[in-house]
Amino acid sequence: MISKPALPPRLRGRRAPDPRWVAGLGIGLAAILALGWIGRGVAPFWPNFALNTAADLIGAVFTIYVITPIIERAGQGGVREHAELDYSQFLDSAARATSVVRILDTYSNLLAEPHAERFETVVCDALARGVSVRVLLINPTTLAAEQRELELGHADELRPMLDRNLETVARIHRSFEQEGGPRGRGAAADFQVRLYSSGPDVTMYRWDDRALVSFYPVGKLSGRSTQLEVTVDTPLGAFVNNRFQAVWAAAAPHQALTPVTVADDRIERTYLVRFVDLEDGRYVASRRVQRFLRRALGEVTATNDGRIFRLESADRPVHGARLDAEFRRVYGEIPDTTYLHLRTREPSVTRVG
Question: Which among 135, 141, 132 has a CA at the least distance from the CA of 112?
Fold first, then answer.
């Protein structure tokens, strides 16, 4: 079997011409030649031919460069409706982006298989072009996450899906480490992921000045519901984009959360929690950990960074003011839950692994 010669790299991404366009071009050329042959007896032939051709060219140029852009801008001002979010199509659009890529969702299937590998490639290529890539995902330790779980009807689904998303982010950052961080892809490279605590109630997948937006449906993921394609200068596009900016400003970098595994005599659970470190150890704040403690049977242990601790309520008269200040500095707010101190188990630290 004879294999076909490989195409040059610069031609591999190009599509073959549409046969209908090729046929139309051929028919048009044939018609021009036929009409020229029929009118050859008109005197003087060539001056008349040039005059008519010039008039047609002026009309064509006016249509292409004046009328067509007006019609396209009018069409872009409208809203296109899609039955659901096509992740592959969005990646195609993001791969052509020249300025920004923005993602706002509970968690994104783009950062999970089967799309994760291509997402990594699109991000790396976008950064090399100077495109800013920012992703907002939900913080699974918040009331917003609990509310969304109730709406979806799938308990404990957000955490494993978010773990897959953050694994993809970690792989991207590891690839950057070999090049000196994201800026190794270019001086203007900007790749950031943050976790939000207050639910925006909308999703956005934006590339340059266009975006797919949706409002959170009840009982199913937003990606499986109707998507509205808009430009960011329309009222709806501007609203969602402004919402992204507001949530982004209040969100915490995903590195500002630490996994804590709590266990009692029956069960074990792992939560991503907010934390700060003081001289006497690490302090965490999490409603889910508090709820686990209220329902626990027997002794409760907490594992973090390969060490096993016991949990104690922080001494608020001693550390309260400082903890408030540190949490406000890192997360922009004071948590409305009790601070918990990860205290080393006596007589010595127990390591895991």
Answer: 135
Structure tokens at 277: 């470190």
Q: Which residues are paired to 43 by β-bridges? A: none
* Higher-scoring residue by pLDDT: 255, 54: 255
Q: Provide the sign of the torsion angle of the four alpha carbons 62, 63, 64, 67, taken in this order.
A: positive
Query: CA-CA distances (angstroms) from residue 285 to 17, 82, 338?
Result: 59, 41, 6
* Strand ranges of the sheet holding 132-138, from the earlier edge strand across to the other edge: 80-82, 227-231, 210-215, 202-207, 100-104, 132-138, 190-196, 252-253
Q: Tell me the residue range of the domain where 286 lies.
A: 256-351
Structure tokens at 233: 């200068």
Assigned domain for 8 exists: no
Check: CB of residue 211 under 8 Å from CB of residue 233. no
Question: How many other CB atoms sit within 10 Å of the CB of residue 192?
Answer: 15
Helices (H), the chain: 9-12, 19-38, 45-62, 68-76, 87-95, 116-128, 143-152, 158-177, 235-250, 287-295, 316-331
pLDDT in tens, 289-322: 998 999 998 899 999 888 999 999 998 888 999 9
For residue 65, tell me if it sits in a domain: no
Phi, psi (degrees; rounded to nearest 5) at 274: -80, 150
**Residue carrying structure tokens 């079997």:** 1
Q: Same structural domain for residues 118 and 147?
A: yes
pLDDT in tens, 60-119: 665 666 656 655 655 555 678 888 899 999 999 999 999 999 999 988 888 888 999 999
Q: What is the DSSP letter of 97?
A: -
Task: Count up the domains in the chain and report the number.
Answer: 2
Residues 304 and 217 in one domain: no
Alpha-carbon distances, residue 186 vs 2, 60, 125, 181 (angstroms): 43, 42, 11, 10
Could you tell me the CATH number of the domain that includes residue 118? 3.30.870.10
